[in-house]
Amino acid sequence: MKQKMDSPCVAAHSRGMKTYFTPRLLEVIVTPQEPALWKWHVSEANVELAHGYATSQQVAQSSGDRALFAILSVALSK
């Protein structure tokens, strides 16, 4: 049997449903600054949350990843 969308059963069910949030998209970007200097930054929607510098691309990527996980761990603990 098909129920109308405005029936009391559907309305009661809708009130009990969880509301979902839009997930955050954080990204780590590594860019060369000089021949021996790389900048990493963690951003969300073009807003820089953290940044730093390293002497190699691999170290910069690793540092950026660590910063990303630190940001995520702080967000989860709240």
Bin the strand percentage: 25-35%
Low-confidence segments, given as residue ranges, are none
How many E strands? Answer: 3
Tally of helical runs: 2
Report the oligomer.
single chain
Q: What is the ordering of alpha helices and beta strands?
A: HEEEH
* Helix content bin: 25-40%
Task: Tell me about this structure.
- This protein is of the alpha+beta class.
- It has a domain of 54 residues: Double Stranded RNA Binding Domain, CATH 3.30.160.
- It is built from two helices and three strands, in the order αβββα.
- A three-stranded antiparallel sheet has the order 1-2-3, covered by helices on one side.
- The longest helix is centred in the C-terminal third of the chain and has 21 residues.
- It is elongated.
- The mean pLDDT is 84.
What's a concise summary of this model?
The chain is an alpha+beta fold.
List the helices and strands and how they pair.
Elements: H1 8-16, E1 26-34, E2 37-44, E3 47-54, H2 57-77
Antiparallel strand pairs: 1-2, 2-3
Throw out a few tags for this protein:
78 residues; alpha+beta; Double Stranded RNA Binding Domain; 2 helices; 38% helix
